[in-house]
Amino acid sequence: MSRPCxxxxxxxxxxxxxxxxxxxxxxxxxxxxxxxxxxxxxxSCDVDGYFCAxxxxxLGGLSMAEYMGLNLRHIDTTETGGSxxxxxxxxxxxxIAAGRCSVALITxxxxxxxxxxxxxxxxxxxxxxxxxxxxxxxxxxxxxxxxMAAQRHMHEHGTTSEQLAxxxxxxxxxxxxxxxxxxxxxxxxxxxxxSPLVADPLHRLDCCVVSDGGGALVLVSPEKAREIGPxxxxxxxxxxxxxxxxxxxxxxxxxxxxxxxxxxxxDARLIPADIDYVSIYDSFTITVLMTLEDLGFCAKGQGGRFxxxxxxISGVGxxxxxxxxxxxxxxHPGNRGGMTKVIEAVRQLRGEAHPRVQVxxxxxxxxxxxxxSIGTRMGSATVILGRNDA
Length: 390
What we know:
The protein has 390 residues and is of the alpha/beta class.
């Protein structure tokens, strides 16, 4: 039985650069837009809906629409950090279903590596942010906040550094086949736990890379998808959520995926056991472990055992993840990894992933994005995708 859907992903493109010293951020947005439209067999004049987030310079969507020459009926600039672009997929589906647009373009671009952005400082969202006066005096670093969540998971469930390291090992097994990945060397658990300690218990190899680049997606109506052909991928379900510190009642034991995941599964009328492949936001190894638990792929507290059994390695385990190498090894454009998660899921469903990591008969895939920090406030977005004949 073919599953119904309200919109399809017709185009997907990942920028090949990892360090864009000779390009501007608007230029990167335009290049990924053209790449995704070319992949869909469409042109910029076909776009009537545009979606972008805080990485778009100037007046955001307004500036980029003018720069790219888009004539729009619909625009959405929802900002939830790295999860924004997966949230945009859901918003684009709703906009297409409501008749507000028929061809929706989503773009991401950034060049933190070329600009020499430090990866060890506190993340700066501006002095006007309401949390600044209460938190900045304690100099919360990105790595420290994720390390707090990892420490709590270890305390609650006995998770070990070796189990977290197994996630990096799986990513490296996939990245060796990606010629554009920043880290292609296959690593062992010992390599990870013996790498320099960054923020206890996280080591250097528990952390994602910093890269430039970006990506884009094109979503279309079912009518347009029939014209384009079988490479279009179905969007079957979606869910979004936010989680914050609840005025000081801090809970580090779960992520926003406990809400966005069930919403997406209910929308798609599927359960975790139905999924053939997952793209999970991997800013740090602990991000992956907690997200897998919160999405229901294993019981709470069992994530360490689940990942250490090799379940995440394509061709070996029962839930292959991030077969492009993910943020841990491939890229993390603009410090926002949600976009690339959808792109690799689309490759898998089209059968266009690298042959060494392609999941056999991949029919249903899940992509999940995390924005902000799992140690403080975050956005979570989950989409469930299906092959054209799913």
